[in-house]
Amino acid sequence: MSESHLILRDDTPVRYLKGVGPKISERFAKLDIYTLADLLCHYPRRYRDFTQPYAIAQAPFNTECVIRATIVAKQGARRITGGRSLVRATATDDNAVLEISWFNNPYVIDKLEIGEEYYFEGVSSGNLLRRQMVNPVVRTALQVQCAPLLPVYPQTEGLSSLQISKCIAQLLDHAELLPEPLPAEMLKKYRLPRKAEAVRAIHQPHSAEEAYAARRRLIYEELLILQLGIARMKERNVAAAGAPMCLIDPEPFLRSLPFAPTGAQRRASEEILKDLSGPHPMNRLLQGDVGSGKTLVAAISIWAAIQNGYQAALMAPTEILAIQHANGLAKMLEPFGIRVALLTGGLRAAEKRTTLAAIASGEADLVVGTHALLSQGVMFHRLGLAVIDEQHRFGVRQRAVLNEKAQQPHVLVMSATPIPRTLGLLLYGDLDISVLDELPPGRTPVKTRFLKGERRADLYGFLDKEIDAGHQIYIVCPAIEDNPTQDLNAVKSYYEDTAKALLPHRRLGLMHGKLKPKEKTAVMDDFKEGNLDVLVSTTVIEVGVDVPNATVMVIENAERYGLSALHQLRGRVGRGAAESWCFLVSDHNSEQVQERLHFLCNTPNGFDVAEYDLKNRGPGDFFGSRQHGLPDLKIADLMTDSRTLKAAQKEASAILATDPALQRPEHQILAALVEQMFRRAGALN
Ligand code: ADP
Ligand code: MG
Fold first, then answer.
1. If you measure from the C-alpha of residue 324 to the centroid of ligand 1, how many angstroms do you get, rounded to a whole number?
2. Each residue's pLDDT tens digit, 293-321
């Protein structure tokens, strides 16, 4: 590289690297790698550790490991079925024999010398006397000495970890290209290596300790940048004054309801009403398990905001849910002369124009809608409160856009998915949380059962009896159309071939995301009014749908869903006084799936379910950019690195206290990295 005529810069596109042409650079783009800096910052996920090789007989069975052994025989390439080639070698140590085969890698054998000792990394199988390995990675003693830990990179089709490793190796002498974002005193304070050093060490560590120190430094940097970015987003949101309101007594509204609010609903509403009358814009999360009655708390808050002369908006993640909320809230609020408008993507042009005009003039007091509420044409007359339902579906970015549509409205987000409190506070330092920890009276837990497809006929017998008893049923399938590559129940053919066939005399409806909005509404209305006994649907009904007379939820291919999603679906039933059931149907035999589904059967509480998901699937589901509009992290993990997160938050506030806009020369590089991280996530406009 040093003789290269090219002057390398950190923003040089990767295609200028040796061995990387347009095709490979396209594959790099799939990994979000465009420049040399991106490549240098593509960190290994883990390492293959060659420092403690096993003797053949001691190697564990059926797990990845490194074995050291001497080659005693080789066998050249042979053609085998499917046009593949096979080469083999035999290696030994003092006690045992290792048979090695490589498929489609004929040249590997040429590099092996009989009588030489090598390291083989792969999965060992076989029996105590004769061990086998297929397609192991081979390294010489010298190679192991130079680089005892072999990095394993996130790879993509046509671009293996090894290829990536070779590209990065070319660059490591140029790690100094990466500017140092952290001030010298910070490096000293936390005993962190410099960036260039850390990047070199994370790709080619000489020891596990060196790799650890490098990782620690890079995690710290990433979390610092994250915290600076979050603080900047927040700052945009608190600059203005908010919508000042008077404290309002909700009693007149509460008296108009057919039921008394639960204690938890009362407490949460009090907290919200107090926020509304405070000096700053509210930023509150209302957490409550499915069915805990979050909508009522939203209604109280909306009522109060409108009594104060403001408009309110409620945003829902799906059209079905938006329509349901518009109808339900209209029923509660219209007696007070409150005018409710619905804004979804499904409106006809003329309807849309009228609605937009009503929102802009203030004729509409409450606007309920989908993300259509965020579109350009929507201007509010005097928005004072924005409620976002099922917030785990919305990003920070959407929230910011809503904020821009008005002078800093109060914001209430509602979610059934609990954010671990400490993490929530660290990420959104100014977020307040109210919890609905009590279900409305008269609820019995939904009885949850796990069964195999072979018992579907019995299940349908049970469904038939439930319909006789006057109850309604949901059946959920994972796909809309049949797909030859996947063996999943598609809702259309399931509806025709299974549901109709097994319940020939019942009234069945079909619902999925590809129906026209009008059709969706018609089907949903039919179901709500009891004109349908069974609704066969995709997960479009996952969140929020409320039909108290429905008592059975059947979920086909239950293995396809995370527990939190299953719990949401289960939450569609058990909303009335009658005993309710949830059936998880799956033919999946893996132990993990079975354990997961059995856990759900025995666990009624959504917080416990979320905790299990968090432990087993990681925090990505909570903090993935899909849900929160936060950037994807390359190296840090918000759950396991929470102590570093805390330190980074402290340092970020200290930096911003002296240099709020990151304008000082020593903060330029940090500022650029913040911009880059958040621009990519789409969190900044
Ligand atoms: P979620 O928290 O899942 O959004 P909903 O707001 O949809 O729950 O409420 C679930 C059901 O409970 C609705 O049918 C609602 O009318 C009913 N409900 C809410 N609060 C009460 C209450 N205090 N007493 C009785 N029923 C209630
Ligand atoms: Mg809800």
1. 13
2. 999 999 999 999 999 999 999 999 888 88
